[in-house]
Amino acid sequence: MLEKIFTFTKAQLSALAGGAIDYSVMIFFTEVFHVHYTISIAIGGVVGGLVNFSVNNKWTFRSKDQEYKHSFFRQMFRFALVVVNSILLKSSGTYLITHYLHIDYKISRLIVDLIVSVVFNYTLQRYWVFGKKPQND
Q: Would you say residue 136 lies in a domain?
């Protein structure tokens, strides 16, 4: 149980690092280049996703006594699928909250990110992207 809490904490720190970059890129493209925030979310999602994948692969889900179920390239492919769907959830969720509740897109994005990060991204990354081979006891 303690190991799962530790892994979850590391995953959230990794998500925070990737998310900070993602969020900064979104703000930059929206405010400086006047790109619609839903498109900026996609751009930031790709950049933040690259950071998040690297940290998760090398630190978050790595263990000394277990190997991953899938090769590095298969992990990248699966991670890309998670990121694309995450971007769709974040863009549409941010748009809906911003448009219908009239909340600034920066705040809407934080609300949606929190939900998508914990419920969607963490679960798929832990068990589907970076799953471990069963240990032989």
A: no
